[in-house]
Amino acid sequence: MTSTTSSAAATFVATLLLIGERQSALAFSSPSAGQKHASAVNGDTSPSKLDSFAEFCLMRLGLDPSSSDDTSSSSPGASPTVYWVGTGELYEAYSGRLLAKFEGFDVGTGVLVDNDHSHVRQFSRKIFWFRDPMTNEIMTEYNGEKVRPIRYDYQVFDYLRPPPSPSDEVDVKTEFSCIGTKLPSILPSIVSGPREVPVLPITAETSGCNRLAFQCPVFIDVETPMGSYQAWENYDYTHDITYPDGQPSICVWARQGSNPPFVENGKGVMRSRAHRVDRYEDVPESIRELVEEKGGSYQLFRYPPKNMAEIEQLQEEEEKRRNLER
Q1: I need a surface site. Which of 66, 94, 99, 315 has the fewest CB within 10 A?
Q2: Vertex 46, ends 45 and 48: CA angle to 5°?
Q3: Using CA of residue 169, residue 173, residue 174, residue 180, what is the dihedral sign?
Q4: The predicted structure's pLDDT at residue 223
Q5: Phi, psi of 55, deg, nearest 5
Q6: In angstroms, rounded to a whole number, what is the distance separating the alpha carbons of residues 92 and 3?
Q7: Nearest to 56 by CA among 6, 107, 110, 93
């Protein structure tokens, strides 16, 4: 099922949460276009400000919205395409019995939507294959039922910079080395994707010298044609804004909910560890072999969606497939 939503109610709730959060938060301000965090990167002792919105978009998508150059080629961490490669496990709650392993990746890119560098759109897709916990072979069935990859041919999200606040003026040289200094949150919304789910602000804070942490919570309680769908997920990103070699940005993800055919009634627990790479060639060979399998339908996962026109074409193809299956 595909759906497109404005998420008006969710955005209203997110805004209320953000207002309350910002009243007590210490935060770094949003720099004007072209301003960089040079003092934090180069070790300069002069004051500097850090843009948590720009840093999140740069880490997650390879796009620096604070740059006057749309390609952001001069920014540390800039890349036209970003891959988040992950492995993980699926457990039965609450016994902890290991049901399956999984591996896969998310591939995405970002584009600026406005001229004031405060609105970024994410075009992405992701796929994860389940593997047998004993043999490590790709699973095609479980207890007589078919097992399919977790597959999203497209996802489109918008990220908005929050309104400026006087508390944004924080001296990086005295605060950036601290752990737990709150930064302005990022406001996400869903533009198009397989499911309509609520969204909450993406929180941000310092996590030590040159390190930032972002937390993306997802609480799902919606009705679908298949019945009630409930789940909880959380994405924890951490990264070094200097992007040192050999220390990629990482994401730890956890989820509790149903995962048929393995487990129903919300009694599945998934966890994964992912890291960022900027080239398809750096995706593990075990995953690339699945993507490039002859006769397979996974070739599109080598690249993110290009634009909304491609999304609409994919939606039309989905509708045709559904009609044929009826």
Answers
A1: 94
A2: 115
A3: positive
A4: 79
A5: -65, -40
A6: 30
A7: 110
Q: How far is Cα 286 from Cα 292, in angstroms, rounded to an integer?
A: 10
Cα-based torsion angle of the residue sequence 64, 65, 69, 72 in order, rounded to the nearest 10 degrees: 10
Cα gap 212→180, rounded to integer Å: 9
Q: Are 241 and 37 in contact (CB under 8 A)?
A: yes
Whole-model pTM: value is: 0.84
**Beta carbons within 8 Å of 312's beta carbon, 6+ residues apart:** none
Distances, alpha carbon 17 to alpha carbons 165, 184, 209, in Å: 15, 12, 28
Q: Is the pLDDT of residue 248 over 80?
A: yes
ω into residue 237 within 30 of 0, thus cis?
Answer: no
- pLDDT for 15 equals 39
pLDDT of residue 229: 80
pLDDT at site 228: 81
Report residue 247's pLDDT band, with 50, 70 and 90 as the boundaries.
very high
Q: Is the peptide bond before 261 cis (omega within 30 degrees of 0)?
A: yes
pLDDT at 60 over 50: yes
**Tens-place pLDDT, residues 80-102:** 999 999 999 999 999 999 999 99
Say how far apart CA 98 and CA 317 lie, in whole Å.
36
Q: Is the pLDDT of residue 222 over 60?
A: yes
Cα(161)–Cα(114) distance, integer angstroms: 11
Cross-strand partners of 112:
120
Q: Find all residues with CB under 8 Å of 43, minimum gap 6, and list them.
A: none
Count of beta carbons in the 10 Å neighbourhood of residue 166: 7
310 contact partners, CB below 8 Å, separation of at least 6: 154
How far is CA 144 from each of CA 136, 151, 218, 259, 262, rounded to the nearest angstrom?
18, 21, 31, 15, 11
pLDDT tens, residue by residue, 251-274: 999 999 999 999 988 899 999 999
Nearest residue to 198 via CA among 69, 19, 11: 11
Helix (H) or strand (E) holding 311: helix 308-325
The distance from CA 137 to its chain's CA centroid, rounded to whole angstroms, is 27
